[in-house]
């Protein structure tokens, strides 16, 4: 299991845009404070729970065979699963301009806990695609 300090640093590095790490740290602190106020438990545990719910277990790789491109499901390692989950969670909220980034992230985390999130839909869609393309497993090399 990865330490909580590593998780927070990984999230801050993912939130950093254009070299403004201080802004990412401030967003992360505000997000952790919002989670602490709402749930009254350690916010790092909440982040672990949320990331565990949206971690994909497979990803699709493209292979070309006889002029056709096949999408082949590939099982991914836990470190890559965590990286993809963080990317999905935090990069979806940069496009939303309704509120501040902290509130967008907070609403997304609440949506994941309540099972009504875009990240969960994305994961389910990926797993359905992997299930339907399972017949192409013999093309991987």
UniProtKB/TrEMBL annotation:
Pfam families reported for this sequence: Ribosomal_S7
Gene Ontology biological-process annotations: translation
GO cellular component: ribonucleoprotein complex; ribosome
Residues in Small ribosomal subunit protein uS7 domain copies: 7-134
Domain of life of the organism encoding this protein: Eukaryota
InterPro entries membership: Ribosomal_uS7, Ribosomal_uS7_dom, Ribosomal_uS7_dom_sf
Keywords of this entry: Mitochondrion, Ribonucleoprotein, Ribosomal protein
Cited PANTHER family: RIBOSOMAL PROTEIN S7
Family: Belongs to the universal ribosomal protein uS7 family.
Protein name: Ribosomal protein S7
This protein's encoding gene: rps7
């Amino acid at each position: 299991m990865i330490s909580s300090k590593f998780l927070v640093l990984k999230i801050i590095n993912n939130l950093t845009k254009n070299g403004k790490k201080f802004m990412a740290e401030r967003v992360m602190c505000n997000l952790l404070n919002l989670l602490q106020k709402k749930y009254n438990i350690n916010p790092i545990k909440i982040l672990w729970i949320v990331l565990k719910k949206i971690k994909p277990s497979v990803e699709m790789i493209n292979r070309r065979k006889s002029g056709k491109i096949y999408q082949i499901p590939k099982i991914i390692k836990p470190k890559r699963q965590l990286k993809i989950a963080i990317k999905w969670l935090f990069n979806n909220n940069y496009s939303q301009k309704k509120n501040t980034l902290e509130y967008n992230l907070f609403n997304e985390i609440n949506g994941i806990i309540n099972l009504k999130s875009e990240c969960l839909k994305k994961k389910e869609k990926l797993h359905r695609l992997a299930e339907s393309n399972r017949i192409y497993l013999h093309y991987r090399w």
